[in-house]
Amino acid sequence: MGTVYGYIRVSTREQNEDRQWIALREVVPVERNIYTDKQSGRDFNRPAYQRLVRRMRKDDVLYIKSIDRLGRDYGEILEQWRVLTKEKGIDIVVLDMPILDTRRGKDLIGTFLSDVVLQILSFVAENEKTNIRQRQAEGISAARARGVQFGRPASPLPDAFKPVYQQWKADKITSTAAAKLCGMPLSTFRYKADMYERANMM
């Protein structure tokens, strides 16, 4: 049997590093063999993982808490699994899913079943992410339909805006002069004027 390693990936927005760490410390005897990356979902550059992959050799064992620690989507999880198990000859043990333990069932049927289960679980994980994004989008759309405003609240119009706007609308002053009297950039005045006009037309 080779060297035993562990890998932890945690987003800067999540707080589950301790849970992963506790689980891995029970199965990885040498603490320095546990590698940790703290990367958000957008930034998937994983320096600790890359160092770990370079260090591991054939017959080493890698423990991870859950399958989604290997990648951010279905395709990447499958690719990392292939590289580690097929190209480097490393065994992987997924603590949350004991059936994904490549040390067992080294025969053709065992390997086939492990690969099938991996593909199903990876697909389910990716599908759940897609469903979450869809639910978020639907929630935002429904909130907007109820009149909920997102983003920074609009700054109030200056007291002088209405009379200045009326003079500008009557072509008594230029846009530049109106913006100056309101104490705002020309583009902001034009935007505010357009919003003001829309609001008063309703």
Secondary-structure blueprint:
Layout: E1 4-10, H1 17-25, E2 34-38, H2 47-55, E3 61-64, H3 74-87, E4 91-94, H4 108-145, H5 161-169, H6 175-182, H7 186-201
Parallel strand pairs: 1-2, 1-3, 3-4
Helix pairs in contact: 3-4, 5-6, 6-7
Determine the structural class based on helices, strands and strand pairing.
alpha/beta
**Radius of gyration, taken over Cα atoms and rounded to an integer in Å:** 28 Å
Strand order of the largest sheet: 2-1-3-4
- Under CATH at level 1, the class of the largest domain stands as Alpha Beta
Q: Topology as H/E string?
A: EHEHEHEHHHH
Keywords:
4 strands; 4-stranded parallel beta sheet; 51% helix; Rossmann fold; alpha/beta; 202 residues; single chain; 7 helices
